[in-house]
Amino acid sequence: MLRGIGRHWFAVLGVATTLLGCRGNGGGPSEPAERDATAINDVTTHDATRDRGDAAVPPGPDAPSTDGQDDKYPCGASIWSPVPGGEDCGLFVADVSKWCFPRRDWKPCGEGCSVAIAGTAPSLNGVLSGNASAAYFQGALWSRFSEIKTLFSDMVLVSRVLDGLPVTAVLSTKENRQCYTLATHGHTPFLIPKNVGSSVLAGHAMPDGRLVWQAGLLPAPSIPHSIFDAFDSSGFWGITFDDGSIVMASAADSVWTTVESSGAASNRSAARKALALYTRWAPAISKNILKAATKGTNSTEELVVGPDNVLTVAMSDDVVAWIGVDGPAWRDGTYASVRTYWSPIGRTAAEMTIAKGPILPITSVGSTVDVAGDWMALEGCGRTSDGATDCRVIVVQRSTQQAYFLRAPSGVVWTLLALAPDQVLLGETDIAKQAGPLVERLALIRSDSYARWHAPL
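^ thats the sequence. predicted structure below, dont judge the formating
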């Protein structure tokens, strides 16, 4: 039971492992980030009857009558079918062609800014921040949101961020402490990792709506630290565990391939195509380095061994980006130096062409970093001239090395969810509720408006 409870906290309170201070600044200046209060008020309630029509987004499937809804089965029991192997957790998958909720409705919230409700189903309690995952893929931002009924039952939706209409929906109906959706702490919007007892059952969603379940339950020897997914049709994914082990598999595999069997736990990982990257403590040199593993093998490569410590990593289809930190207390989360780096993706150190980005005036870094197009994004906190702590989402233009410190509007906090070549996706929560576990709204800021929301630390 203790082991199960520990893994439960990883799942439902995964947000606590991020840097809570890096959720934006609550005070909010009058310039540059004042927002018309009606913009927030307009998106604080669900309207299940709102017209789906929107010239900017192709219309989704026609919404059937919602008369068959009940508290247990959103859109009614008839659209849900049992998931083989998920009986102990009451897992069901939806026929999304019969989805009854409207598309996501975006409202303007300032220059280059749009905001929308994060959740979909009024009968559920909202989107769990620790399980929210998003990424840019095939020309669109995608998300996997876990809308919770209780701590141990949820509805997981994989959808395009813009319309919010699911290509896959998985429902957990049993109140069982051994059944929950694992937090991934990375950009894995197509992966649905369900804890089932002491094992993991993974669903692999595809942009075209297909859902492929893992060939069998895979063991989970300890608490997961980070989960990666390569966004490929084979369902290549893996987990870094608290005991230092790192494992990976494809959807057709019924056993793990072990990449690392012991050592210090790797807190962050990323993958694309057939390559997985993860941070790793190297005792021989007393540095955190970046390592690489290839799908289907247990061989590894030391990819980045630099003058500082690799803290966290992200990948796009062609670029890998990471944060390097240093200082006497860096292992305690306080940094004397924070620098951005990037390179075209390489499988060996010789194939990497490392570019140094700007050193940022921050002393702590959040858990999320992303890269897309000419941009890199992260969360960070620094000290203001009066000694106060100020936290921001930071976007860096790689070609110019210009950093923009995005300051949230008065009354709300922002968290980084994902980056696209032309905009950034943020989670938004009222300051009064920032200690809670939910993301209330989503915000999109266009890249041509970053300067408008920038306020130097």
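The helical segments are 2-12, 37-41, 450-453.
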